[in-house]
Amino acid sequence: MLGLMQNQPLLISSLIVHAERHHGDAQIVSRRVEGDIHRYTYKDAAARSRQVARALDALELGFGDRVATLAWNGHRHFELYFGVSGSGRVLHTINPRLHPDQIAWIANHAEDQVLCFDLTFLPIVQAIAAKCETVRHYIALCDDEHLPKDSGIAHLQSFEGWLSGHGTGYDWPQFDENTASSLCYTSGTTGNPKAGLYSHRSTLLHAFGSALPDCMGLSARDAVLPVVPMFHVNAWGIPYAAALTGAKLVFPGPGLDGKSVYELLESEQVTYAAGVPTVWQMLLGHMKPGGLKFSSLKRTVIGGSACPPAMISAFRDDYGVEVLHAWGMTEMSPLGTVCTLKNKHLSLPQSEQMQIRLKQGRAVFGVDMKIVDDEGRELPWDGKTFGNLLVRGPWVIGAYFKGEGGDPLQGGWFPTGDVATIDADGYMQITDRSKDVIKSGGEWISSIDIENLAVAHPEVAMAACIGMPHPKWDERPIVLVVKKPGSQLTREALLAFYEGKIAKWQIPDDVVFVEAITLGATGKILKTRLREQLKDYRLPGL
Ligand code: ADP
Fold it and tell me: Is 97 touching ligand 1 by the criterion CB < 6 Å?
């Protein structure tokens, strides 16, 4: 016997319809490439999303055709999120920090028909246009006045000019909720980039799950600033979850430096922010010297790479902001776990609560996880035994787009490539990425632990730990360190700093001071690049 409730498909268009009807006057504020601050409401955004849909119809774009974006977080990008997917096309958000050749490869692989871009990225578009075989329309996210005259790009039009020819009346089409809605390529540190192809259903379920109090915990009382880019796993789904809850949205555009983010957090009275540790490092670096404080920020989600304990403490003790440590990946839409305490933890002393907060957290309903050994045997949840982390759920990848990268599943589970522990309460902690974990004398050393301890030293700005080949131990850890300006820190002093904090055999064999550590396209340390740079390096004593 089937249930007798209404069988409405879970469609992305329903989010913007809801936001318009129930939170029509809630604001969306954007710092734009043009330099101004743009301000409007969900009602306005909904109308313009419908215009996008009509404008795409006028281009005779078919159901399922791909529309690409190379864009910052901003209101026009937001309108594309709903106009493109809502009308049955697939939104392909491209990471502009990738190499232009890789962007061209991705655009061809996705068979993008339209490319919408912020003017910041005009040079990239000029460099790749001749190579993009399928793109028929180029649209600059600006008005006619700002449209570059001699761009050399055929059929270039402005977004505002393109929309102005179309009215706002439009009935969102109804279709199967399993229809593809958006496409997101991983940064591809090895081999060709692979893409997750999200569906309307997976996106809606992810939005419901992520808004829950023990997950992102968004509400109509929040003003949310996603620093995490809309080209990086849909800004962790925040544009959808914000529309679902009616939260005010504040988009930082190209201003991701500490000063710009701080100004916007304050001027828009933001309560909730989200980003990778490196952007918060820049923000705290800007605030500390001038003794600046937050007047409205309450919570911040930090993920994408391990959040150093020193950062969690700084946010809490110096600024009164709760850090929600989160873990996920492109293949998971992206949310997997978020760290929030359980009722029984509330009476624990701060130091014990901190031990829990450092973990990547508990699985969100909708994500099941387990750890297994190399033979696939499930390992205990004791908080000590670590193994390969596998996940499954309705917003976890089932297959890569066009099969690039092979079958991602093992017996119905997706191996994340991360190594983790899970404790008896279900809190997962990432030990390392499986390719970064350091194998020394049959034991594993977590590069994350070594890095976290280094950045806890007051004179260390940034640290990266990698394994170096060793004839006896297989590998030994070394740590690359960027010192804070004016620091006189020595190798010996930093190695001494590790003593008593980790086992002797886990202490790095060497410290290499460097001017800078290059970050990859998603703000993470590129360890493959570091290993290349150090190919002639020899461990002390070898
Ligand atoms: P990629 O960097 O491969 O393009 P993602 O941006 O989706 O892919 O990154 C996913 C990976 O980032 C995870 O598999 C994990 O290794 C790492 N990661 C994400 N969040 C955290 C976290 N909170 N702590 C440690 N590692 C994390």
Answer: no
CB contact burial 343-382 (16+ within 10 A = b; e otherwise): eeeeeeeeeeeeebbbbbbbbbebbebbbbeeeeeebebe
CB 453 within 8 A of CB 497: yes
Q: Does the pTM exceed 0.70?
A: yes
Residue type, 184: C
Q: Output the CA 167–ligand 1 centroid distance in Å.
A: 42
Written as six digits, the tokens of 514 are: 């460097």
For strands 272-275 and 322-328, give the pairing. unpaired
Does the domain at residues 438-533 carry the CATH identifier 3.30.505.50?
Answer: no
Nearest Cα to Cα of residue 91 among 117, 75, 67, 115: 67
pLDDT tens sequence across 169-226: 999 999 999 999 999 998 655 567 899 999 999 999 999 999 999 999 999 999 999 9
Q: How far is the CA of 375 from the centre of ligand 1 (A)?
A: 24
Q: Where are the domains of the chain?
A: 438-533
Of 42, 13, 53, the closest CA to residue 167 belongs to 53
Residue-wise pLDDT tens digits, 98-148: 889 889 999 999 999 999 999 999 999 999 999 999 999 999 999 999 999
